[in-house]
Amino acid sequence: MTQETTGRETTGRISSTSRTSFTQRLSTIPGAQEALERTRVPRQLISGALRWVAVVGWVVLFTGALCWYAGRRLGWLELAVAGVALVAVFVAALVFTLGRQPYAVDLRLSDRRVAVGDRAMAGIVVRNTSHHRVMPARIEMPVGAAEVTFALPALSGGAEHEELFAIPTSRRAVIDVGPVRSVRGDPLGLVRRAMTWTEVEELFVHPRTVRLASSAAGFLHDLEGQTTRDITPSDLAFHALREYIPGDDRRHIHWRSTARTGTLMVRQFEETRRSHIVVALSRNRADYYDDEELETAISAAGSLGLQAFAEEKDLTVLTSHERLTALSRRQLLDELTRLEPGAGTQSVISMAQTVSSEIEHASLAILVCGSAVTAHDLRAAGAVLPIGVRALAIRADGDATPGVSTVGVVTVVTVPTLDDLPHSLRKAMR
């Protein structure tokens, strides 16, 4: 990804509206307009320089001026010399910030979406757009909670400098990369002049997922859908024949049976429905022993969702706090990446109630939770689900051994790590 923008100052404190209104009022004084025009450039330089001064810079300047004044008043030559030296240091620090920064900065990410543990690289290309040599500077760029800093050497006209660095991807997160700033200042940090060149880019570190075998995922393998016991006058799965009733579709009259019995006979069908998978993930912090269990649960939910997409099943993904938008693989992983631990009274029971009341024609409900969820909670959640919906629970427990058990109508699959999920699911579906 490439991002390039025009640099802008980042340390302004006085609004442009206030400065403009003050200048307009001053220009009404006779002779002030000419004076303002003559001093426009110096005033801009001084205004910019004042914005660049750090707190420690003001302390040095004030201390120097005070020492010089006190030394002159008291006849203390050493104190006056110390004051002059401090003021000279401040003036020298200002010199470090002078000059243009004619840069064109290009921020490049190797990929905006990676999985946990994958390599993510970023690069910054700085080009001198002028025809003359520019002085060295420093480049700063926030990367999440950290900050990348490197020295930018002096560049001749048209020259480029490139820096590459790796971005840690050990944890699921949305990492803000940028903005890139070029900074000029003195070694003591008295004065700092920063220019912002790019916008913030988002790097998605998706949760790790595993591939699930089709037979192990518990999905329904049918071309027309799952047949039900509901009788319908029009569908694909033939059920029986019955006598014609006024209003029946004549296209479903079975003419051979009609000719044999002498009575109009029509076909009846069993209603079929397309397999609809519901993945309900608890993100309530109280349902997990630690953050590792939550990460295992999120990865398990992502793996189940990707398997549903691979088999072209209808998929609904929700959490204990909201319903996620999952229309594609990328969108599902992006939504899971943004999840944070929540609080409140939401539980696996409330998720089951949501499935029952808001999601129609669900064929398989998978509840994903942590070790703090009890067998009583899972039994109650299974009792809430509609009749005919198969109930499965994925329970992340870092201290347990992989296993399969049954609690009420719910098949409970316990997985200490994500790598145990495929084998445990395969056992559960035998």
TrEMBL record:
It comes from Georgenia deserti. Residues 1-22 are annotated as: Disordered. The chain crosses the membrane at residues 49-71, 77-98. The lineage of its organism: Bacteria, Bacillati, Actinomycetota, Actinomycetes, Micrococcales. InterPro entries: DUF58. This is DUF58 domain-containing protein. Residues 1-11 have a biased composition (Basic and acidic residues). Keywords: Membrane, Transmembrane, Transmembrane helix. Residues 12-22 have a biased composition (Low complexity). Signal peptide: none annotated. Residues 241-323 form the DUF58 domain.
